């Protein structure tokens, strides 16, 4: 069955062949890609050879959700010569030919991340390259204050927001409120460690990495930010992020292999100290993020075209929240 998006993509390519530098257009095949909870992603094969990704961005302003196709396009443009992300073709936000803004980039042939020593070293090198990138060309990128007091303030605001929702679960509210109080007490006299502000991906779940024999690349650049590299690294190595896409966790030995490679390249010798201090704060932030998004899903506040057929994807938010709660109960 051909969906409305399939038909729109076919019509678009035939109407604007010059944008794809393919002439003549003989045939087009459209397939749905599994990546992404909040977007529509399609693998489009033209003339049995040229493989492209069409990514559509539904409006999703409910809760604290952003969906910036323009920012993703600008990031991909900036990274062309770094080879850490797909190569973009164009971004169309006219919403004339498609219902939603649309990004088109070249498909990266490969598989999602398999965890082993070789891929972890390649991934550490990717992060090191990203975190050394000069982001001056990305004028509108958001900055994140990653000092402990600012993080605590942000988490308290998230909890307050959740407490104001119609379907707030009182028990969940109390659990997270208690965690916040414990963390505040634990870090009351802890120092603020300085960090070098860097460009972060900020959503490094394993499914956002594509690997092949040559390299590892990162996809889904909708929420980049300027902040402490410890945020990216801590999330990538954290249990809830690993288990978002994988069935097993990275071992302690594998984590150290990754960190040794990253630190050797970046010379950021205090990153583990910053990660250890802020991990409870990062987990609290992610847990509340998942709690709010799952609440929106249960309340049907999510774009219904997006929610259709994606129950398992949205259930991941609840699963990840539970993982965060279990971890915090053990470390606090």
Question: Secondary structure elements and their pairing?
Answer:
Layout: H1 4-15, E1 28-32, E2 40-46, E3 50-56, H2 69-78, E4 88-92, E5 102-106, E6 111-112, H3 117-131, E7 142-143, H4 148-163, H5 170-186, E8 198-200, E9 209-211, E10 216-218, E11 225-227, H6 229-237, H7 239-245, H8 252-266, H9 271-298, H10 304-307, H11 311-331
Parallel strand pairs: 7-11
Antiparallel strand pairs: 1-2, 2-3, 3-5, 4-5, 6-9, 8-11, 9-10
Helix pairs in contact: 3-8, 4-5, 4-9, 5-9, 6-9, 7-11, 9-11
Describe this structure in words.
This protein has helices at 4-15, 69-78, 117-131, 148-163, 170-186, 229-237, 239-245, 252-266, 271-298, 304-307, 311-331; strands spanning 28-32, 40-46, 50-56, 88-92, 102-106, 111-112, 142-143, 198-200, 209-211, 216-218, 225-227. It has 332 residues and is an alpha+beta fold. Strand 2 (40-46) and strand 3 (50-56) form a beta hairpin.
Please give the alpha-carbon distance between the first and last residues: 52 Å
Radius of gyration: 21 Å
How large a portion of the residues is in β-strands, by DSSP E?
A: 5-15%
The overall pLDDT average reads 93
Question: What is the structural class?
Answer: alpha+beta
* pLDDT < 50 stretches: none
Order of strands in the sheet with most strands:
1-2-3-5-4
What is the ordering of alpha helices and beta strands?
HEEEHEEEHEHHEEEEHHHHHH
- The percent range for helix content is 40-55%
Multimeric organization: single chain
Tell me the total number of β-strands. 11
Shape: globular
Characterize the main sheet: 5 strands, antiparallel
Number of distinct helices: 11
């Amino acid at each position: 069955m051909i969906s409305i998006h399939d038909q729109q993509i076919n019509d678009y390519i035939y109407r604007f062949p010059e944008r794809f530098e393919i002439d003549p257009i003989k045939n087009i095949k459209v397939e749905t890609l599994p990546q992404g909870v909040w977007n529509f992603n399609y693998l489009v094969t033209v003339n049995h050879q040229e493989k492209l990704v069409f990514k559509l961005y539904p409006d999703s302003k409910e809760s604290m959700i952003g969906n910036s196709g323009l920012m993703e396009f600008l990031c991909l443009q900036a990274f062309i010569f770094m080879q850490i992300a797909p190569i973009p073709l164009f971004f169309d936000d006219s919403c004339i030919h498609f219902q939603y803004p649309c990004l088109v980039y070249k498909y990266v042939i490969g598989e999602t991340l398999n965890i082993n020593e070789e891929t972890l070293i390649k991934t550490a090198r990717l992060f090191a390259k990203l975190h050394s990138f000069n982001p001056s060309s990305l004028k509108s990128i958001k900055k994140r204050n990653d000092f402990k007091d600012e993080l605590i303030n942000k988490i308290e605001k998230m909890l307050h927001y959740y407490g104001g929702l119609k379907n707030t679960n009182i028990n969940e509210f109390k659990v997270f409120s208690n965690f916040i109080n414990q963390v505040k007490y634990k870090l009351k006299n802890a120092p603020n460690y300085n960090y070098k502000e860097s460009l972060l991906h900020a959503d490094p779940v394993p499914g956002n990495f594509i690997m092949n024999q040559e390299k590892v690349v990162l996809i889904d650049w909708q929420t980049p930010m300027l902040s402490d590299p410890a945020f990216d690294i801590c999330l990538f190595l954290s249990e809830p992020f690993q288990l978002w896409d994988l069935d097993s966790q990275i071992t302690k030995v594998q984590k150290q292999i990754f960190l040794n490679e990253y630190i050797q390249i970046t010379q950021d010798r205090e990153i583990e100290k910053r990660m250890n201090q802020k991990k409870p704060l990062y987990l609290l932030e992610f847990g509340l993020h998942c709690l709010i998004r799952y609440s929106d899903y249960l309340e049907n506040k999510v774009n219904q075209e997006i929610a259709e057929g994606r129950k398992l994807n949205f259930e991941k938010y609840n699963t990840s929240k539970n993982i965060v709660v279990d971890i915090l109960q053990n470390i606090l």
